[in-house]
Every structure is written in structure tokens, then in C-alpha cells.
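Duplicate of #3305? Posting structure anyway:
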């Protein structure tokens, strides 16, 4: 997916996760951090940063809160 810029979306089409939250993605790999939501073509995506600090956009349906250990 292309790189989305949250500042290019209206308030109703973006949500900041403040503070960022730990999430697991559909591959259920723990340890990534979600910091923004944007709505693109009627579907929400979360911006997730991995331990390597690289970011990627993942469909909301493929994310869930990380389990506390």
C-alpha cells in the first residue's frame, strides 16, 4: 500500500492514537506500535511501526490490541 499522510485527511477521516498503542497484525506478530488511523475509500487503515521503525499501513480488520504479558 502506498504511504498515506494523516495530515492530508479531514478530521472525520483520521484518528491519532495518543499515546501510540501496541498492536498485533494479521500475522499476529507482536511488538508493533499503531500511531494513526486514516479512512481511505470507506475503509480504515492503521499506521503501524515495527521494531525496525519502518512504517506500514494495515487494514483495521487485520489489527487487534496486543495482549499484555
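Output from current build:
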Amino acid at each position: 500500500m502506498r504511504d498515506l499522510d494523516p495530515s492530508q485527511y479531514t478530521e472525520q477521516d483520521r484518528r491519532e492514537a495518543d499515546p501510540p498503542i501496541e498492536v498485533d497484525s494479521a500475522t499476529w506478530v507482536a511488538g508493533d506500535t499503531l500511531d494513526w488511523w486514516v479512512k481511505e475509500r470507506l475503509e480504515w487503515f492503521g499506521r503501524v511501526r515495527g521494531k525496525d521503525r519502518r512504517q506500514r499501513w494495515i487494514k483495521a480488520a487485520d489489527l487487534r490490541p496486543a495482549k499484555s504479558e
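Confirmed duplicate; merging threads. The first strand starts at residue 14 and ends at 25. DSSP finds no helices and five strands in the chain.
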